[in-house]
Design brief:
This protein is an alpha+beta fold and 327 residues long. It contains ten helices and 15 strands.
């Protein structure tokens, strides 16, 4: 582990360039200076050992990747183009040089693929490993950002990505602990190495119809559909139609093998980092043509509450502050 803050900064400099599009002043001053000239998105996400991950089954590179992926997914959920990010670390004494190098390497690989320069951050010792990531974004080529609470009754609800897969992966990892012989590789990968859907978010914002933008609202799904959809819809509700055949094969097989209804388990989800979007029915064909991986999972209703295959959804997904048994 570095013995000084300056030594740590040299490790940072080895992994992350200090330049990027729109970056007027990078790391090294009190603040970075970013040239926007347009609305600017900022979001933060904290990733704490034994709360969000366990070193028993997360590699160092997995930790670095997922910490940035989870934060960047918020940019995807607004159809924002990444500009850069800041990283603050709390490091316990048992984090050595090799672990730190691999963790930053995992983060740097994703940052490079997303064209997100690291622009600053902070460092502290502490009892647990924790990463706090602040991401910055701007409107993409469409010039617009998509928000929650824009859907109207009758609008179609579309899903981009899988739900329930990361939850299955978490359950498998918790059960298998240190074993690397996992029976559900897709689920394990979804939990350890999620990919923020930046490209899909930008694509949704660019779809135009003669009547204007095709997509009215957008949100990333991080706490599960059951908890995130009410946040997305505001005063309205949703009627969802989701069948076993609509699920990832590992989701259907895993939860069936564990005695759970796979459809309900998928709706509860958690850490899916999928996207949920809304669009008027008449604009739906254009959305599906432009982004074939999007699929319709229901429609917005004037009546509050979530109904899944005509039954009311009573359980909700993950909440950090919920008491055991309430999530």
């Amino acid at each position: 582990m570095p013995t000084s803050e300056q030594e740590f900064l040299r490790v940072i400099d080895r992994h992350f360039p200090n330049h990027g599009s729109g970056l007027l002043l990078g790391r090294g001053d009190d603040c970075a200076i970013i040239d926007t000239g347009s609305p600017f998105c900022v979001s933060t996400d904290i990733f704490v050992e034994d709360v969000h991950f366990r070193r028993e089954y997360f590699s160092a590179a997995d930790i670095g990747h997922k910490a940035l992926a989870a934060a960047a997914s918020d940019l995807a959920g607004m159809a924002a183009q990444p500009v850069g990010f800041a990283l603050s670390l709390m490091l316990p004494d048992d984090v050595g040089d090799v672990f730190l190098d691999e963790m930053l390497g995992g983060m740097a690989a994703l940052a490079n693929s997303l064209k997100m320069p690291l622009v600053g951050g902070d460092l502290s010792r502490g009892p647990k490993l924790a990463l706090d990531v602040v991401v910055f974004g701007k409107p993409g080529p469409s010039g617009r950002l998509l928000r929650r609470n824009a859907a109207q009754p009758g609008d179609a609800l579309l899903l981009v990505g899988e739900v329930g897969l990361a939850r299955a992966g978490l359950m498998e990892l918790e059960h298998m602990a240190c074993s690397e012989a996992h029976s559900w590789p897709g689920a394990v990968a979804a939990h350890l190495r999620p990919e923020p859907r930046i490209a899909e978010g930008l694509a949704l914002a660019q779809i135009e119809t003669p009547d204007g933008p095709a997509v009215s609202g957008l949100m990333d799904v991080s706490d599960g559909l059951a908890r995130d959809l009410p946040r997305f819809l505001g005063q309205f509700g949703a009627e969802l139609t989701l069948r076993r055949k609509d699920l990832h094969p590992e989701v259907a097989a895993f939860f069936t093998a564990h005695g759970e209804d796979p459809v309900e388990a998928a709706v509860l989800g958690g850490e899916d980092y999928a996207l949920i979007a809304s669009a008027e029915q008449k604009k739906l064909p254009m959305v599906l043509a432009a982004l074939p991986q999007a699929r319709v999972i229901g429609r917005v209703s004037a009546e509050p509450g979530l109904r899944l295959n005509s039954g009311l959804v009573l359980r909700q997904g993950f909440d950090h502050f919920a008491k055991p048994g309430k999530g």
